[in-house]
């Protein structure tokens, strides 16, 4: 197990694990089954986040370790959507009175679904869950090859405001290195259709650290992305995990030389700031022309997330739950088939997840706040937990000692150098218990 000192963690480099949620789903385990009505009964249900997971894609990218499968049978896809609707009906009863303040459809690739099935999901979300589609901020993830006029028309008609598309790179040799066959002409046409459909926000995802990538080729991809004036850009460092295609092919090995990801990150960050983008987190950059988000800020799980679909996570303050998790196709398919076989009574129960005691809740709040602009508010922490954050987590002071953060005017905030080490700071703040449960955890 790594030493508790942040200085020692930093010696291992800036890229150890992405802390987009805490704890990561790989820390979930089988638990005694419990009623979801009871789990949600004492939660604030006035501003919930609905997330619908579509675990299907046209291809399995070499770097992907998400819960998804490529090229499923049409009958499986239809049965899956039927099951998601059935799950919504079960959660309608389990949640009782509630209001959803945000909606996201992710994957996988949600736009893999035919337009009619996409429409069915949105209509069910409105009729069963009571989501006002036209008034609720919502987004969807797409891939270039699945963007079609009929799909985009359905999404826009259903009130979708944000479309996020993974491009990863505009350099053909780089997308080949990612085991992702993709032509720039398809990307350009997809962006044209998204813009033509009138979505207020376009997000593009790019990846750095690809085999054969240089600062010059990376900045060329940045310039190509900027030419489309996306409202948001996400820059992801490449992680190669053991069960992914790239991991199995051993394309990147520890002895292949220096890790240039930090130099690539710095070059891209400088270019985006020069273009007027604001950095929201290590990965997210927002354009000056991006519309103001009218929805509530979804941070630290004050609002609660209700997940629908195999692979979707749900969060109450003290209990995170989902279906089980897999990367390999056979295991993923088995989980999806088990999900499809569930009736409403089974969907009203949860038996796989993670119990967050008071310490884990505090760590989650700190990690989720600290790694995103504007940072960790002392007052918000005290209001939530009735204590001082520096008394509960005194190790945070090491961030200021190492000049990675400032603690001024009641706000604990990473500086530019600290933000660049988000993927080390997040894992460093995880509990020893969570790290022991995670197979890929830094140690």
UniProtKB/TrEMBL annotation:
It comes from the Bacteria. InterPro entries: Aldolase_TIM, Coproporphyrinogen-III_oxidase, Elp3/MiaA/NifB-like_rSAM, HemN_C, rSAM, rSAM_sf. It comes from Acidovorax cavernicola. This is Coproporphyrinogen III oxidase family protein. Keywords: Iron, Iron-sulfur, Metal-binding, S-adenosyl-L-methionine. GO terms for molecular function: 4 iron, 4 sulfur cluster binding; catalytic activity; metal ion binding. NCBIfam families: PRK08208.1. Pfam families: HemN_C, Radical_SAM.
């Amino acid at each position: 197990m790594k030493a508790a000192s942040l200085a020692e963690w930093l010696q291992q480099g800036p890229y150890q694990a992405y802390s987009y949620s805490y704890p990561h789903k790989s820390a979930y385990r089988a638990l005694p089954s419990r009623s979801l009505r009871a789990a949600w009964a004492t939660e604030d249900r006035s501003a919930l986040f609905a997330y619908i997971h579509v675990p299907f894609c046209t291809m399995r990218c070499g770097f992907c370790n998400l819960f998804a499968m490529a090229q499923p049978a049409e009958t499986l896809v239809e049965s899956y959507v039927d099951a998601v609707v059935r799950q919504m009906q079960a959660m309608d009863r389990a949640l009782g009175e509630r209001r959803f303040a945000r909606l996201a459809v992710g994957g996988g690739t949600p736009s893999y679904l035919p337009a009619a099935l996409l429409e069915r999901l949105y209509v069910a979300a409105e009729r069963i869950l009571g989501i006002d589609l036209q008034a609720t901020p919502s987004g969807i993830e797409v891939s270039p090859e699945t963007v079609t006029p009929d799909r985009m028309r359905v999404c826009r008609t259903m009130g979708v405001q944000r479309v996020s598309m993974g491009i990863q790179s505009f350099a053909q040799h780089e997308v080949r290195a990612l085991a992702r066959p993709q032509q720039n002409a398809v990307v350009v046409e997809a962006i044209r259709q998204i813009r033509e459909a009138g979505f207020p926000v376009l997000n593009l995802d790019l990846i750095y650290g690809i085999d054969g990538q240089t600062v010059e080729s990376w900045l060329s991809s940045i310039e190509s992305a900027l030419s489309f004036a996306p409202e948001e850009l996400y820059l992801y460092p490449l992680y190669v995990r053991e069960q992914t295609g790239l991991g199995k092919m051993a394309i990147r090995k520890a002895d292949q030389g220096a890790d240039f990801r930090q130099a690539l990150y710095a070059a891209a960050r400088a270019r985006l700031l020069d273009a007027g983008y604001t950095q929201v987190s290590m990965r997210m950059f927002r354009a000056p022309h991006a519309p103001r988000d009218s929805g509530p800020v979804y941070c630290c799980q004050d609002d609660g997330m209700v997940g629908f679909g195999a692979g979707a996570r749900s969060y109450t303050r003290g209990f995170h739950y989902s279906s089980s998790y897999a990367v390999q196709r056979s295991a993923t398919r088995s989980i999806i088939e088990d999900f499809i076989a569930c009736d409403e009574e089974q969907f009203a129960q949860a038996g796989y997840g993670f119990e967050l005691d008071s310490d884990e809740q505090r760590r989650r709040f700190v990690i989720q706040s600290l790694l995103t602009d504007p940072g960790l508010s002392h007052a918000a922490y005290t209001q939530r937990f009735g204590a001082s954050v520096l008394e509960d987590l005194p190790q945070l002071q090491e961030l200021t000692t190492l000049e990675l953060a400032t603690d001024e005017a009641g706000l604990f905030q990473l500086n530019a150098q600290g933000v660049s080490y988000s993927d080390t700071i997040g894992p460093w703040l995880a509990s020893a218990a969570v790290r022991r449960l995670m197979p890929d955890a830094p140690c």
